[in-house]
Amino acid sequence: MKMDRVVSTHVAVSHRLTVAWLNKAMQAGIPAVEIFCARQHFDYHNKSQIAEMGHWFRDAELRLHSLHLPMYNDEYWGRSGPQAVITLTEPVKSKRIASIDEVKRALDVAEVIPYKYGVQHLGVSGEEYDDRKIEAAFTALEELTIFARQRGVEILLENIPNRLSTAERLVQFNEATHLHMNFVLDVGHANLDEGVASAYRIMRDRIRSTHVHDNDGQADTHLFPLLAGGGTVNWPETMKLLRSRPGQYPLLLELREVPGMENPLAAINQVFDRLEELPDPGNDQS
C-alpha cells in the first residue's frame, strides 16, 4: 500500500508563498502540502495572504494537511534578534505569553483554511533539559491544545535536535503532563540523535505525521533523500518502518531549497518514487 504523499513548503521557505506555487505543486500531481509558517514565506499575520490562500484552497484538489507552527515572529528567520524567537519553554511568563500569542495567530488560520495538524517544536535547536522549561511547556500546551481543538486542529510535537525533544523525552513529557499529545516523527532529526529505528520504536504508537529528509549525521541539512550526495539515513530500513502502519501517517517531505535546481517539484516526485520503490530489507525491523 502506498503512503499518502505530502510536501512541506519549507522547500521554498525563503520565497513568498503564492497560489502560483501551489498551482505548480498541484499540476505536478502532489496531493497535499504542509505550509511552513515563516513570515517571509507564509505570513500568518497577513489577512490578505490568508484570504487569498483560503479562496484558492476552497476550489483546489490540493489539500492542506498541516501547518508547521512558527519558530520566529519576524521576517528574517530570527535574525532581527533574540526577541524574535518563539518558544513555549520560556520560563518567564510575560515572554512565554508572547510566544503563545504568536502560535495562536497561526492556529487561527484554520478559521479560513481548514487543516488537520499543527506541528510544534518543544524548545529550540540545541536547548538543554531543565525541569522549569518542561513546566513552562506544559502550561503553554495545556492552553494551546484547547485553543487548537476549538478550531479543528490537533497539535503534534516534533522530535528536534535538543535535550527536551528526543523521542524518549517526548514520551516522558506525555507521561509527566498527561496531555496525551501525538507526534511528528522527523526522520532527519532522529538520524542526528538516537537513530531512526530507535526513535520510531519509542514514538510509534503516537506518530500521526512525518518529516522526511536526509543529512550527513552531523548537520540538519534537509537533503533530498536518494538524490543528494552525503546522506546517511538507511532508507530501506526507514521505509519498512514507515510502511508498517499503512494509513496512519503520510510520507511528508520537508526539504531545503537547492540553489540552481531547475525543477524542484519534479525532483520531489522522483524522491517519492524512489522511496516507494525501495524493497524491504530481509530482516524484521518493526
Count of helical regions = 9
- Residues in β-strands, percent: 5-15%
Helical proportion?
Answer: 25-40%
Number of strands: 8
In terms of structural class, how would the helical and strand content be classed? alpha/beta
Query: What is the radius of gyration?
Result: 18 Å
Count of the separate structural domains: 1
Globally, the shape reads globular
Question: What can you see in these coordinates?
Answer:
With 286 residues, the protein is of the alpha/beta class. It has a single domain (5-277), classed as TIM Barrel. Helix content is 36%, strand content 13%. It is built from nine helices and eight strands. The protein has helices at 19-27, 47-59, 93-107, 131-149, 167-177, 187-192, 196-203, 235-243, 264-277; strands at 5-8, 32-36, 63-68, 117-121, 154-158, 182-186, 207-211, 251-253. Strands 7-6-5-4-3-2-1-8 form an eight-stranded parallel β-sheet. Helix 5 (167-177) packs parallel to helix 7 (196-203). The two termini are 16 Å apart. 41% of the residues are buried. The model has no long low-confidence stretch (mean pLDDT 95).
Please give a handful of descriptors for the protein shown:
single chain; TIM Barrel; 36% helix; 13% strand; alpha/beta; globular; 286 residues; 8-stranded parallel beta sheet
